[in-house]
Amino acid sequence: MNLLDVENLWVRFPSRRGVFDAVRGVSFTLGRERLGIVGESGSGKSMTGRAILRLIRPPGIVTADQISLEGVDLMKKSEREMRSVRGQRISMVMQDPKFSLNPVMTIGNQIIEAYRLHNRASKSEAYAKSLEMLEAVSIRDPERVMRAYPHEMSGGMGQRIMIAMMLIPNPEILIADEPTSALDVSVQRQVLDIMDRLVKERGMGLIFISHDLNLVADFCDRVLIMYAGRIVEICDADKLHDAQHPYTRGLLNSLPRLDAPKDRLEVLQRDPEWADADSVSGRV
Amino acid sequence: MSMLQIEKLNVWFGAGRDRVDAVKGAGFTVEQGASFGLVGESGSGKSTILRAITGLAPDWSGTITVDGKQISKARVKTFYKTVQMVFQDPYASLHPRHSVDQVLGETLHLHGFRDIDTRVVKLLDDVGLGQKFRFRYPHQLSGGQRQRVAIARALAPEPQLLLLDEPTSALDVSVQAEILNLLTDLRKDRGLTYLMVSHDLSVVGHMCERLAVMKDGEIVEIMDVAALRGMQATHPYSQHLLEASI
């Protein structure tokens, strides 16, 4: 049984120069797996993630044949009903922890607030649970971190705190939008390991949005490659380096590589046909 | 001959209890026409070295020698004719209300050039933008085009040493390839010397011949790119960094 089934998703923004289609007829399913969405800026990958949670504000228009969470269509839910889905059943981690945490509240109070919003619990119970969460994301000194303010945290710690907060309600699906782009390579690994462990232990579905092809190839099970609002190719992550579509090939070839030095890097030649072709379906 | 020589460089911010030593005893030499990379994690002090060279970080000690001339705290005008810098974020480093023509024209004027008109056209051609971009504003340009304008501005005083602070980390990989190719060509055509900061080892491996690995404000290892490619880092931290980026 698929956790999530997205069929024919469109995101449109009306503008003075006509309607801009940010996402154009995207379909895919998510099981208990790590699904990667890669593409350049403006390819519609973040919009896809936000549309699932119905976080696109007017004048943006979202249409889809269905966005089903375990058989229930999210498109038919009211805004009030959506609120019990967001965070509770589908959580989202954004790119930069600096903009996602409240700067004038201690980390502890923020986690406790998030916990008590979703669970009826006493303060001490929530405190204990919060400590446990921070430990789950490998924060060494959780008591000190609970008392600290966001500016006292490094980027990697901030991102782990965000993940801890997202995991409190035990969601079925985690959408991570460039969760490690603001982090150093070695910290990146730690954050990925934590997410990986959580997916395995809790049987969560993970949608991992990134522009980093190597990272996605390494970390995910399945990858959707997006270009101009469409899915141009779908492949198993470990076979990403044998991808067929000229766009994916172009992106891979334009990366400098330590093991294969060359004088000039290949430059991606864009073909207008890529944008016109129909979206490939990622439904299983 | 060496274009840039740095010895026992210390850079610090703040004073007393709040003093942070961002760079501690750094030293390296970059030959004329060479390309040297500085790698390390955020907070390791790699960008601070660039800022100390250009005078953006005022509190430093040690010696910095550019093109045979030791630089003092107050920079002379000719210094900026020799050294120019390209910043990480092309969205932040261009004035939003100045057109490309104004940005380049003003720089040329400040450096005392007379034939500004022909030079602006030449600069735009050199960075692969062409004349049609001359009267555009930054918001009418893509990230890659903006970075090209920033490079054109740095090239305007005809410098010999270019300091590149993560010039492609805000760009998509396909655009990164274009900008790195442009930088390679410019270096070949003009005989420029590069000092490049990056957190991406493969970018430094592509662009540079030698590199220094930094950690907590100190240079832990200086090596050739050939050694980097052969995974022959000797310091445990460089090995760790290398493993993490493969």
Sketch the topology of chain A as an H/E string, one letter per element.
Answer: EEEHEEEHEHHHHHEHEHEEHH
Share of helical residues of chain A = 25-40%
Task: Give the name of the CATH superfamily of chain B.
Answer: P-loop containing nucleotide triphosphate hydrolases
Order of helices and strands of chain B: EEEHEEHEHHHEHEHEEHH
- Average pLDDT metric of chain B: 90
Largest interface: A-B, 26 and 26 residues
Count up the helices of chain B.
Answer: 9
Beta content of chain B comes to 25-35%
Kindly report the spatial arrangement of strands forming the biggest sheet of chain B: 6-7-8-3-9-10
CA radius of gyration of chain A is 20 Å
Number of helices of chain A: 11
What characterizes the major β-sheet of chain A?
6 strands, mixed
Assembly state of the chains shown? heterodimer
Integer count of domains of chain A: 2
CATH superfamily of the largest domain in chain A: P-loop containing nucleotide triphosphate hydrolases
List the helices and strands and how they pair.
The complex is a heterodimer of chains A (284) and B (246).
Chain A: E1 4-15, E2 18-30, E3 34-38, H1 45-52, E4 61-63, E5 66-69, E6 72-73, H2 79-83, E7 90-93, H3 97-100, H4 107-118, H5 123-136, H6 142-147, H7 155-167, E8 173-177, H8 185-202, E9 205-210, H9 213-219, E10 222-227, E11 230-236, H10 246-253, H11 272-276
Parallel strand pairs in A: 3-9, 3-10, 7-8, 8-9
Antiparallel strand pairs in A: 1-2, 1-4, 1-5, 5-6, 10-11
Chain B: E1 2-13, E2 20-31, E3 35-39, H1 46-54, E4 60-66, E5 69-70, H2 79-82, E6 83-86, H3 100-110, H4 116-126, H5 143-155, E7 161-165, H6 173-190, E8 193-198, H7 201-207, E9 210-215, E10 218-224, H8 225-229, H9 236-245
Parallel strand pairs in B: 3-8, 3-9, 6-7, 7-8
Antiparallel strand pairs in B: 1-2, 1-4, 4-5, 9-10
Helix pairs in contact in B: 3-4, 5-6
